[in-house]
């Protein structure tokens, strides 16, 4: 009987414990439970808005357009500020580039453009193969492969001369690696290789290598300051031409991004910007310019009205 | 032995009482926001809302991860997170309140019960009192909750810039549709 009594006491004790536990859990804060259960703790989300547009300034950024998004990009470069009051400090001269960029998928973009400078047509493909995730260092950067072809369509200076089609072509390959360090600061490295099928003189290099360094710093919610520098690796091109350095002020309004910029380069595509740049900041060869980009969403099927949730 | 049986009976009864479920939860709750203007309708869906109801007290809480709102246009989503609700600074919206007329709901009987919820809604770091009408749909062990109410961005210090002011409605509709399951706390 003694033994049964003891066992019985153990039973009761266990029973009390079992009841006590849910009672304890009942006391804790429901809000804490809800916060612990929501999705912010489960999956890391992709970093958005590393840069505001598909360009840092003139060079490409790691930003791609979402699927079926079309961007219309208008870029202007006026003449140099040191061209004097007669030329209204450069505003009388201007070159323009019009371009369309389209998202085949969220990661794969294509684009075409036409610059008035050297009457150049260009086409590019951009592929994002790595995307930064918020928090932690599991996927610390966004990385993009970029390839473009540019066609110089100027008529030969001497009408007798015939320039072969392939001689008019220039190819660019870039690896763009960027990290958004915090809400305000994003930095990008862009190793660049440019191949020219035809170069003006024997001394010129067909292959030019450069390293781009660019960044964006947000000033307010809708404005930012950007800088971009392309360093030519030592060689004939580096000795003859200057490194492109640009600064811009970005204003974002809904689907538009306005970029007001100052640069020592008039080029709006890689081969003119990087391999063919002669302007020097110290000499006052500063080009004022702007980029305007407008995003159009072409995906009608994504309409949410009538979708069952 | 009599005493033993009596106590054992009490114990069993007691345990049964303790196991009765009074808390329900979901972590896939659906909340969507809707803004209607002559120019453009904007809609965003969030299906990762976590919510708890306690039927003992009528307490009701929501935790809403702001980055889980999906918009039709990826650019809208970016603007929503970056400029309006500032998801990096304020990653979660929340609601903490009570079902005022919890007594009128019979959780043992299937049916749709009108309820009134009042509490504090926190968005963009701003907390404000909110009252909303809704329904609880009791179906066996599952409970559905639905509600629709409106807020204005200004109340939560969300400033709409002049250029897009015509695109975003002054009053935003918030729709709630959740399916709760019994919650068993980890022992």
From TrEMBL, chain A:
Residues 51-296 form the DUF5777 domain. Pfam families: DUF5777. InterPro entries: DUF5777. Keywords: Signal. The keyword Signal applies. This is DUF5777 domain-containing protein. The keyword Signal applies.
TrEMBL record, chain B:
The keyword Ribosomal protein does not apply. Residues 23-181 form the Lipid/polyisoprenoid-binding YceI-like domain. This is Lipid/polyisoprenoid-binding YceI-like domain-containing protein. Keywords: Signal. InterPro entries: Lipid/polyisoprenoid-bd_YceI, TTHA0802/YceI-like_sf. It holds the Pfam family YceI. It comes from Adhaeribacter pallidiroseus. Residues 1-20 form the signal peptide.
């Amino acid at each position: 009987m003694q033994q049964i009594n003891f066992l019985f006491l153990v039973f009761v004790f266990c029973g009390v414990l079992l009841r006590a536990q849910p009672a304890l859990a009942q006391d804790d804060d429901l809000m804490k439970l809800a916060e612990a259960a929501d999705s912010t703790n489960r999956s890391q989300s992709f970093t958005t808005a590393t840069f505001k547009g598909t360009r840092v300034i003139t060079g490409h950024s790691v930003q791609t357009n979402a699927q079926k998004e079309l961007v219309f990009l208008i870029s202007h470069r006026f003449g140099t500020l040191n061209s004097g009051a007669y030329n209204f400090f450069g505003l009388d001269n201007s070159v323009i580039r019009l371009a369309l960029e389209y998202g085949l998928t969220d990661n794969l973009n294509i684009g075409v453009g036409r610059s008035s400078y050297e009457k150049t047509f260009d086409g590019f493909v951009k592929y994002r193969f790595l995307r930064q995730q918020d928090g932690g260092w599991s996927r610390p950067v966004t990385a993009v492969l970029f390839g473009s072809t540019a066609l110089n369509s100027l008529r030969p200076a001497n009408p007798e001369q015939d320039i072969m089609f392939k001689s008019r072509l220039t190819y660019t390959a870039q690896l763009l690696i960027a990290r958004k360090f915090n809400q305000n600061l994003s930095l990008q490295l862009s190793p660049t290789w440019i191949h020219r099928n035809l170069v003006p003189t024997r001394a010129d290099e067909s292959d030019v290598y450069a390293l781009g360094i660019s960044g964006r710093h947000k000033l307010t919610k809708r404005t930012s300051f950007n800088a971009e520098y392309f360093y030519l690796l030592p060689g004939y091109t580096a000795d003859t031409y200057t490194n492109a350095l640009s600064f811009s002020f970005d204003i974002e309004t809904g689907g538009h991004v306005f970029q007001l910029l100052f640069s020592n380069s008039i080029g709006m595509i890689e081969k003119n910007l990087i391999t063919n740049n002669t302007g020097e900041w110290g000499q006052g060869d500063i080009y004022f310019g702007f980029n305007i980009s407008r995003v159009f969403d072409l995906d009608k099927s994504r309409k949410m009205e009538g979708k069952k949730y | 032995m009599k005493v033993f049986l009596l106590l054992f009976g009490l114990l069993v009864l007691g345990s049964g009482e303790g196991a009765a479920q009074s808390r329900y939860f979901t972590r896939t709750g659906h909340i969507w926001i809707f803004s209607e203007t002559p120019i453009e309708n904007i809609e965003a869906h969030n299906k990762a809302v976590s919510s708890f109801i306690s039927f003992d007290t009528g307490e009701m809480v929501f935790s809403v991860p702001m980055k889980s709102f999906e918009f039709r246009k990826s650019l809208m989503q970016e603007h929503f997170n970056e400029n309006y609700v500032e998801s990096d600074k304020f990653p979660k919206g929340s609601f903490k309140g009570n079902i005022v007329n919890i007594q009128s709901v019979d959780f043992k009987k299937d049916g749709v019960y009108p309820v009134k919820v009042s509490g504090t809604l926190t968005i963009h770091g701003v907390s404000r009192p909110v009252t909303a009408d809704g329904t609880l749909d009791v179906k066996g062990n599952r409970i559905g909750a639905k509600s629709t109410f409106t807020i204005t961005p200004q109340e939560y210090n969300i400033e709409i810039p002049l250029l897009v002011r015509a695109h975003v409605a002054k009053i935003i509709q918030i729709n709630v549709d959740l399916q709760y399951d019994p919650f068993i706390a980890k022992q």
